[in-house]
């Protein structure tokens, strides 16, 4: 089976700032990868390159057989297959929860409204908030909004899901309700790339943990190896910091 | 939710007497100022009432008016047709009146949320403007032909306003999006067009389209009213596009990114996600832009278009009623006030409605 995402020798600059340095990463279908690292290390930049929210300057990114470049229709094709969940939820505040969920399937996939709504209710039930379908995002708690954001992405039936610190903007008591949804998604075999500092989640579902620092991948490995026997000095320092509190 | 809100203790309300005392007589000095202010207001109101109602002449001749000390509303009764319909042929006034009513009706209809779909609004406006033009111009269905140069009065003012907004609004959206284009050439050129138009006074633009354009391109530039509408629409669009752009720029970038990540293309992102939110945010300045444009229609008088203001001037300008210019202007101000005040109340209603998220 071909890999879901293959990144090789990726470089990315913001002006003269070298944000990603020769990053290579392969994610197999069904694999769950957790990316961690200190603030500013390029984690968001890396996963935003995967659906071309950021463009890279050298190296190649192959997503489900599409090699990303300036070709807009190829980018659209990749975005159709790759769902993304953001730190700030980014629900569309002028639409109801249901509208948020049916919009893209109807416009991009051409799904009929009735079918799109049934599918939306299916995923809203899966994230356990079907009763909120007709509310507006502003009327929901942060945890509920993030679960809607996951459901909205799932409504496109993506093959790969990207998560950029999905729990960082949440109050502690809401983190677990979002993580629970992510765990069950992982158990169903979704290919997932998660930037997160939730190390419990990483231990539980990750097939591979990647540590980034200063725009480069410093270390990566299976979670047991990674947590119990980190090789790199910077990884050890980071882990001791993050596991301390 | 509503229940719990009402059940919660309301803030204590002090008796009316205490509240009045607090707002008007907190100290002797402000008490004195309040009293003086109230006395002046009462005096002014009394005189206004005497002039505008008690001693006024509502129906009669110019002679009756001269004999009375109050306002001469008789001029309105005598000349309202001229003010509303301008030089439109007298026996065809019903067409102008009907046209005016159609436009007002369509304005009211487009204020209703049911019509807030680009397609519905477009169909509504294009159809009704076509009907309006057929009705006013005639030459078909047994209606006699009336050239645009004879249109006038309030009907013409409202028509110019509607057409300006109808052309200017889509144009402003296009300009706002072009100015945000990622192609530097497109955005720079659009920016230059917008800024040049904004740095010219409307009067200059009107002169350019009414006087200069026919000299530069004789015969191929449409009627004067069409050119005036084009000029006003351009001016409207230059300002409105910047209002919209500020609305777009105030949105969090995450909105566009989320839409991109869902696979939505540029048009869908703009029409479903970005513009609807930008319009909501830009609502207050948009309403005032409409009000300004409505008032600016009266500037067309300087290039000889016979709008509401010009017709008003004509209404008192003919000898016998010459002394009644105050009454005529008060009346025109009142008509303008009705339109613009309704507009701003509507704007306030929209803001309240949108705070809910709809
Ligand atoms: N749009 C931008 N323009 C310029 N520099 C940027 C931009 N976005 C990110 N950077 C820089 O690139 C570096 C990597 O940013 P990135 O957001 O990928 O970090 P991160 O690992 O996700 O950090 P965090 O944990 O704080 O989210 C940072 O130093 C940041 O300042
Ligand atoms: Mg980040």
TrEMBL record, chain A:
One annotated GO molecular function: ATP binding
Keyword Disulfide bond: no
Recorded family membership: Belongs to the ABC transporter superfamily.
Alphabetical keyword list: ATP-binding, Nucleotide-binding, Transport
Any Pfam family: ABC_tran
Name under which the protein is recorded: Amino acid ABC transporter ATP-binding protein
Gene3D superfamilies named in the record: P-loop containing nucleotide triphosphate hydrolases
Domain ABC transporter span(s) in chain numbering: 5-239
Superkingdom of origin organism: Bacteria
Automatic annotation (TrEMBL), chain B:
Residue ranges of the TM segments: 24-46, 97-116, 122-146, 158-178, 198-217, 328-348
Location in or out of the cell: Cell membrane
Matches recorded under Gene3D superfamilies: MetI-like (1.10.3720.10)
Annotated membrane topology: Multi-pass membrane protein
InterPro entries per UniProt: ArtM/GltK/GlnP/TcyL/YhdX-like, MetI-like, MetI-like_sf
Residue span, ABC transmembrane type-1 domain: 154-342
Pfam family, one: BPD_transp_1
UniProt main location, coarse: membrane
Keywords: Membrane, Transmembrane, Transmembrane helix, Transport
PANTHER family the record matches: INNER MEMBRANE AMINO-ACID ABC TRANSPORTER PERMEASE PROTEIN YHDY (PTHR30614:SF41), MEMBRANE COMPONENT OF AMINO ACID ABC TRANSPORTER (PTHR30614)
UniProt family annotation: Belongs to the binding-protein-dependent transport system permease family.
Designated name of the protein: Amino acid ABC transporter permease
Organism of origin: Pseudogemmobacter lacusdianii
Lineage: Bacteria, Pseudomonadati, Pseudomonadota, Alphaproteobacteria, Rhodobacterales
């Amino acid at each position: 089976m071909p890999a879901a995402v293959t990144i090789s020798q990726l470089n990315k600059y913001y002006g003269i700032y070298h944000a990603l340095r020769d990053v290579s990463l392969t994610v197999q279908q069904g694999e769950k990868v957790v990316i961690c690292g200190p603030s500013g290390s390029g984690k968001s930049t890396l996963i935003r390159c995967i659906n071309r929210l950021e463009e890279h300057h050298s190296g190649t990114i192959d997503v489900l057989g599409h090699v990303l470049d300036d070709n807009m229709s190829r980018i659209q094709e990749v975005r159709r297959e790759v769902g993304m969940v953001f730190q700030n939820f980014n629900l569309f505040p002028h639409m109801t929860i249901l509208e948020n969920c049916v919009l893209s399937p109807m416009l991009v996939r051409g799904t009929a409204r009735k079918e799109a709504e049934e599918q939306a209710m299916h995923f809203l039930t899966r994230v356990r908030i079907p009763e909120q379908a007709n509310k507006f995002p502003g009327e929901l708690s942060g945890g509920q909004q993030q679960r809607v954001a996951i459901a909205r992405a799932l409504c496109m039936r993506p093959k790969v899901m990207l998560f950029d610190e999905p729990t960082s903007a949440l109050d502690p008591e809401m983190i677990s309700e979002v993580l629970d949804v992510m765990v069950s998604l992982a158990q169903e075999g979704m290919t997932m790339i998660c930037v997160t500092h939730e190390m419990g989640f990483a231990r539980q579902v990750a097939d591979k943990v990647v540590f980034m620092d200063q725009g480069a991948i410093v270390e990566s490995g299976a979670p047991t190896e990674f947590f119990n026997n980190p090789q790199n000095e910077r990884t050890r320092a980071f882990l001791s910091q993050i596991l301390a509190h | 939710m509503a229940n719990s809100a009402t059940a919660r203790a309301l803030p204590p309300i002090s008796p009316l007497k205490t509240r009045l005392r607090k707002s008007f007589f907190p100290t002797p000095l402000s008490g004195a100022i309040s009293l003086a202010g109230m006395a002046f207001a009462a005096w002014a109101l009394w005189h206004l009432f005497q002039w505008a109602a008690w001693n006024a002449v509502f129906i009669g001749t110019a002679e009756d008016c001269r004999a009375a000390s109050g306002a001469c509303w008789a001029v309105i009764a005598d000349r309202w047709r001229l003010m509303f319909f301008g030089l439109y042929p007298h026996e065809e006034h019903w067409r102008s009146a009907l046209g005016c009513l159609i436009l007002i009706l369509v304005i009211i209809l487009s204020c209703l949320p049911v019509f807030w779909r680009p397609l519905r609004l477009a169909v509504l406006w294009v159809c009704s403007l076509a009907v309006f033009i057929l009705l006013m111009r005639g030459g078909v269905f047994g209606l006699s032909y009336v050239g645009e140069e004879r249109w006038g009065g309030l009907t013409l003012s409202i028509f110019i306003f509607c057409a300006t907004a109808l052309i200017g609004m889509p144009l402003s959206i296009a300009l706002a999006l072009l100015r945000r284009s990622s192609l530097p050439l497109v955005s720079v050129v659009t920016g230059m067009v917008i800024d040049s138009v904004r740095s010219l006074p409307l009067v200059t633009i009107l002169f350019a389209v009414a006087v200069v354009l026919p000299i530069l391109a004789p015969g191929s530039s449409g009627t004067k009213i069409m050119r005036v509408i084009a000029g006003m629409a351009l001016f409207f669009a230059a300002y409105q596009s910047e209002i919209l752009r500020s609305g777009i720029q105030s949105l969090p970038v995450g909105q566009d990114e989320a839409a991109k990540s869902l696979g939505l293309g540029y048009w869908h992102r703009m029409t479903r996600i970005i513009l609807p939110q930008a319009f909501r945010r830009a609502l207050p300045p948009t309403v005032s832009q409409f009000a300004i444009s409505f008032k600016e229609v009266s500037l067309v008088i300087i290039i000889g278009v016979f709008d509401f203001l010009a017709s008003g001037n004509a209404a008192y300008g003919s000898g016998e009623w010459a002394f009644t210019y105050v009454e005529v202007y008060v009346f025109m101000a009142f008509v303008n006030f009705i339109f613009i005040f309704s507009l701003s109340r509507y704007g306030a209603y929209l803001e309240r409605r949108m705070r809910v998220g709809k």
